[in-house]
Design goal:
282 residues; alpha+beta; 7-stranded antiparallel beta sheet; 5-stranded antiparallel beta sheet; 6 helices; 12 strands; globular
Length: 282
C-alpha cells in the first residue's frame, strides 16, 4: 500500500507539538516492557519500536510471553496502549482521562499475567522533556485531529524509509525503527565495515518534531560530519542544519508545499544521500 501524502496538511505541522509530546511519554511504558524482558543489544535496539500500519501503532519486538510472543505498543491516533499477539489485540488501555501512573499499573498487571517482568521497575538511561500534564490525567478530547495527523506523519515516514532502504544496492542498512529516546524513526546506512563509532555512515530518518524544529521533518545525516569547507547545495527546498546535529533537513511545511509530495520527498532523500555519500568518499 502506497502512502497518500495528499491526506496530510489538514492540521498544520507546527500544531502537533502537544500530541507528539504526549505520545512520546506514553511510548515509554512499552519500551520499559521491552527493556525488562529482552536481552540488551549492543546498539540498544531491543528498546526500539517498529511501525504497524494495520494498528497505526508503534510496537515493541516480540516479548517471550506465556502462550506465544506478545508485543506492547501505542496506537497513536487514539493514544491507546495495546498488547498484541500476531494480528490480534489481546488487551488495550485508553489513556484518555487516565494518569501516567494508572497506565503503568495496568501494564504491569498485564505483563505479570503473561509471565513477563513488570515495566515499572525499569529506569530509563535518558531524560525526557517534562510531561506537559505534570503526571495528571490525559485530557484528549480536543486532540483527536492532532493525534490522527501525527499518526499519518509517522506512517508516511515509515513507508518512505522502507522504500528508500529497498532501493539501496550493495549497502547495508539497519531495520527501520523508532527510537524511544528522541522519538525519531530511521535507518542507518553503513558505507564501510568497522565499528559504528568510527565507520562512515549516513542516517536517514524522520522526527515528529523536537527542540530543533517544532514540526515533523526528514533528515539525512552523514558521519563523520563535513568539515568547515563550503557545503554543497542540498536539493531544494531542503537546507543544512548545523546546530546540535549536522545534516540536510526537509521540514513538514516544505513537504506540504510541494506539488507532488511523495515524489518530492523521495527525490530529496535520494539526491541528498548521493551528495553526502560522494562527499564522504564512499
Amino acid at each position: 500500500m502506497r502512502f497518500d501524502w495528499s491526506k496530510l496538511g489538514r492540521t498544520p505541522p507546527a500544531a502537533l507539538s502537544l500530541a507528539r509530546t504526549l505520545a512520546h511519554h506514553a511510548a515509554q511504558w512499552p519500551t520499559k516492557a521491552a527493556r525488562a524482558n529482552l536481552r540488551v543489544a549492543p546498539d540498544d535496539s531491543q528498546s526500539a519500536f517498529s511501525w504497524d500500519a494495520s494498528h497505526a501503532a508503534l510496537l515493541t519486538q516480540g516479548l517471550p510471553a506465556k502462550g506465544g510472543e506478545a508485543r506492547v505498543g501505542i496506537r497513536v491516533p487514539r493514544l491507546e496502549m495495546i498488547i498484541t499477539r500476531g494480528d490480534n489485540v489481546l488487551d488495550a488501555f485508553q489513556l484518555g482521562g487516565k494518569s501516567d501512573a494508572q497506565a503503568g499499573a495496568w501494564l504491569d498487571t498485564k505483563l505479570r499475567a503473561l509471565g513477563l517482568k513488570p515495566a515499572g521497575d525499569v529506569r530509563l538511561p535518558y531524560e525526557l522533556p517534562d510531561h506537559p500534564l505534570g503526571g495528571g490525567s490525559h485530557q484528549l478530547a480536543m486532540l483527536g485531529r492532532e493525534l490522527g495527523e501525527l499518526a499519518r506523519w509517522v506512517g508516511g515516514a515509515a513507508e518512505t524509509l522502507e522504500e528508500f532502504r529497498s532501493r539501496l544496492q550493495g549497502l547495508r542498512a539497519s531495520p527501520i525503527v523508532c527510537w524511544p529516546h528522541h522519538f525519531d524513526i530511521a535507518t542507518l546506512v553503513s558505507l564501510e565495515e568497522g565499528a559504528p563509532a568510527s565507520a562512515r555512515s549516513i542516517g536517514v530518518g524522520a522526527s515528529p518534531g523536537d527542540e530543533y524544529y517544532a514540526q515533523p521533518y526528514f533528515y539525512v545525516n552523514p558521519y563523520p560530519r563535513f568539515d568547515g569547507e563550503k557545503l554543497p547545495d542540498p536539493p531544494a527546498p531542503g537546507h543544512w542544519h548545523t546546530d546540535g546535529f549536522f545534516g540536510a533537513v526537509l521540514t513538514g511545511d516544505d513537504i506540504l508545499a510541494m506539488k507532488d509530495r511523495g515524489r518530492g520527498l523521495t527525490g530529496f532523500i535520494d539526491r541528498t544521500f548521493e551528495i553526502e555519500r560522494a562527499r564522504l568518499g564512499a
